[in-house]
Amino acid sequence: MAVLSRLLRARTTTSYAIRSFCCSYSTSSPPSSSEIGGIAAPSLASNTSTDRRNVQWVFLGCPGVGKGTYASRLSKLLAVPHIATGDLVRDELSSKGPLSSQLAEIVNQGKLVPDEIIINLLSHRLQIGEAKGESGFILDGFPRTIRQAEILEGVTNIDLVINLKLREEALLAKCLGRRTCSQCGGNYNVACIDIKADHGNPAMYMPALLPPPHCASKLITRSDDTEQVVKERLRIYNEKSRPVEEFYRIRGKLLEFDLPGGIPESWTKLLQALNLDDHEDERSATA
Ligand SMILES: Nc1ncnc2c1ncn2[C@@H]1O[C@H](COP(=O)(O)OP(=O)(O)O)[C@@H](O)[C@H]1O
């Protein structure tokens, strides 16, 4: 991981040409896979075997789709770190370090942070993980541009990219409904999405995820979750991040996943799509 973090940094701050990448993150043969709906979903066995490196997955999807929710659940299930670049940016903002005023302005306008800054934050996070003995990762919010995807491809192999999808009309409401408990850090959503079936689209119901009573008076909203800023983030996603889906689609790494409804239903279906449903049963049985 230290090598990965150093290479990431070198790759973006200089014109460093990476000729080879040889460590446990090198180009080992891709994990064995089973075909699901024409998409190669990894078999867990290949990713957890000790003679291979751990999973290296990426989550893509519009703001509000739920990348953080599902990436964090998978990270616990697979025992790999969930690394969200949005969280790294928010940590930097709250640290009041030298970058924070520049970052605040960018984030509060819904714009993307320059690649150099994001890669430095990510490299630093990977180095800390290395020191703690972490291996593998589930990236959430990175890469968000073709350039970031190319930089990542230049330094390591990504096994799988999960593209979470939700109907457009639900995304804004879900962003505006997000709340975090300022004390325990728990994430909730006060929006209840109830879309009727129309024009061949099925109905969709996502209940609110309400906080427990002890968090209810401590809820905060992200400063960039206002209607104007979310609309700008959605516009930027379509302009800069949508092409990243195609980048991975043509490389045969993209798993498209339409969220069918609320978390219990979507989680079960996501595990099935990833061939991980047996694994969760085993975990609960041995817990
Ligand atoms: N990979 C990235 N490249 C550039 N900016 C980023 C990246 N990841 C996060 N950011 C910045 O952090 C903000 C919050 O990111 P995130 O929490 O992932 O938001 P979202 O809910 O829009 O997916 C983004 O709007 C952007 O300003």
UniProtKB/TrEMBL annotation:
This is Uncharacterized protein. It comes from Cichorium intybus.
